Amino acid sequence: MNKVIYKEQLSEDVFLMRLEAPLIAEEREAGQFIMLQIDEDFGERIPLTIADADEKEGSITIIFQIVGKSTKELAKFKVGDFIPTLVGPLGKPTHIENFGTVVCIGGGIGVAPLHPIAQALKKAGNHVITIIGARNKDLIILEKEMDAIADELIICTDDGSYGRKALVTEPLKEICERDPKPNMAIAIGPPVMMKFCSETTKPYKVFTQVSLNTIMVDGTGMCGGCRVNVGDEVKFVCVDGPEFDGHKVDFDNMITRLGSYKKIEHDKSECNLEKEAAKKEAEL
């Protein structure tokens, strides 16, 4: 069991937690993730990227957004509570070397998994340009942490409430048009955002890496739920990824598969809300 040793609410539906996990903190590398289960017997397994780690404290940091029943329950955990099951580090680490100039693009909650990668790239000697995007100012996370790493930081919001009013693809295109162009781009965020980032860089022949967060059940490649088409091959995100060449990923197929359980998730969330409302009414 792993103790919650710190908790912070970053926005309305986004939470940061530090969990006691000394072995994972020691072994993890940028780009890897964990799977946790909040119900020891029947709970859903949730894949979450390791946003940071502290070997001295023996802790890992996770950042998650409430999107369904399991993450809603996870958000109720308090400091001192224990996560029944936590496994990791999983997935292949990010390949880190001095590429030259790297553009790191994070959309919404995608800034969390981008953070350790940008951190490792900077440590390797890269010139790091970071673009952070969100729907509005309240959904911008880890700005100070990313600013401390980046040689250049660009913030975009859809509504213009903070930074530049633009989608992240707009400054990305401008950076690709620079002379010299960047050596590499890394995009992490909603599937549609990663798709259009990849389409933006493709005409400029800037290699673009994306980190995929697909449906996962076991995290070992056994269930096949996380499979994606990459070029002419079928890959499993949990063991072959989570990072792939964005110019080869079949995003349309991936987005369709991700939508398979939306109705079930919605129905369960609605049912959960009704139960909570009934419980509160009974207490009055």
Gap between N and C termini, in Å? Answer: 36 Å
At the fourth level of CATH, the homologous superfamily of the largest domain is Nucleotide-binding domain of ferredoxin-NADP reductase (FNR) module
Computed Rg? 19 Å
CATH topology of the largest domain: Rossmann fold
Number of strands: 17
Give an overview in words.
By secondary structure, the protein is α/β, with parallel strands linked by helices. It folds into two domains: 2-90, Translation factors (Elongation Factor Tu (Ef-tu), domain 3, Beta Barrel), CATH 2.40.30; 101-259, 3-Layer(aba) Sandwich (Rossmann fold). The protein has nine helices and 17 strands. Strands 12-11-10-9-13-14-17 form a seven-stranded mixed beta sheet, with helices on both faces. It has a five-stranded antiparallel beta sheet with strand order 5-6-2-1-7. Strand 10, helix 4 and strand 11 (152-157) form a beta-alpha-beta unit. Helix 5 (169-176) runs parallel beside helix 6. The radius of gyration is 19 Å and the shape is globular. The model has no long low-confidence stretch (mean pLDDT 88).
Q: How are the secondary structure elements laid out?
A:
Layout: E1 2-9, E2 14-20, H1 22-27, E3 33-37, E4 45-49, E5 52-54, E6 59-65, H2 69-74, E7 82-83, E8 85-90, E9 101-107, H3 111-123, E10 127-134, H4 143-149, E11 152-157, E12 164-165, H5 169-176, E13 184-188, H6 191-201, E14 208-211, E15 227-230, E16 233-236, H7 237-240, E17 243-245, H8 251-258, H9 262-283
Parallel strand pairs: 9-10, 9-13, 10-11, 11-12, 13-14
Antiparallel strand pairs: 1-2, 1-7, 2-6, 3-4, 3-8, 5-6, 14-17, 15-16
Helix pairs in contact: 5-6
